[in-house]
Amino acid sequence: MNSSQSSSEQFGQHLISVGGSEADVSGSAYAVTDDDTVESVASGLRIKQQQQGTPASTPSILHASAQVLISRRDEQDPQTHAGTSQPGEYQLDIHLSAGHSIRESIPEKDLEQAQIWAKGRIEAEGADFGAIYFPAGGSDEPGTGALECRYDRAVGWYR
After folding, report:
1. Mind listing the pLDDT tens digit for each residue in 22-52?
2. Residue 131, SS3 per DSSP
3. What's the CA gap between 52 and 137, in Å, rounded?
4. Using DSSP, how many helices (H) and how many strands (E) does the chain show?
5. 110 to each of 84, 115, 131, 138, 147, how far by Cα in Å?
6. 21 CB-side CA count, 13 A
7. Residue 63 and residue 72: Cα distance in Å, rounded?
8. Contact assessment for residue 93 and residue 142, using Cβ atoms and an 8 Å cutoff
9. In terms of C-beta density within 10 A (0-12 exposed, 13-18 middle, 19 or more buried), how is residue 118 classed?
10. What is the pLDDT of residues 82-132, one digit of tens each?
């Protein structure tokens, strides 16, 4: 991770790497709320596209666009959205079909070991996407917390 880049800039680079662009974010007309998660924003983006009569973006572009929007929200209000947990308290979100996801605690304290454990769980569920978070403010709801890294079956682990 390049420490001179903000997380939204890094997510923007990921968006481009999966075939998206800034237009997927800025032209979305989706207003992110304090309660939104990456998954709820991705779903909202898909709904907005359908309402506007435009073809739906691929799930990876929707997900990456949502990550940019969430990180921009969090950067504007770090007091409310900053991750407050300590390293080693990892949580895994497994993104299943139709915007449904589950969250579970990861028993590993080292991030590399947590990724190995999490990949096994993601694959066991037959999911294509997952993410490792530090839970924020004690919340254990999927999509909450400080995002540490993501998993895409087609790409592997990435930040």
Report:
1. 988 888 888 888 888 888 888 889 888 888 8
2. strand
3. 36
4. 6, 5
5. 18, 9, 15, 20, 15
6. 2
7. 14
8. yes
9. buried
10. 443 344 578 898 988 766 888 888 888 888 889 999 999 999 999 889 998
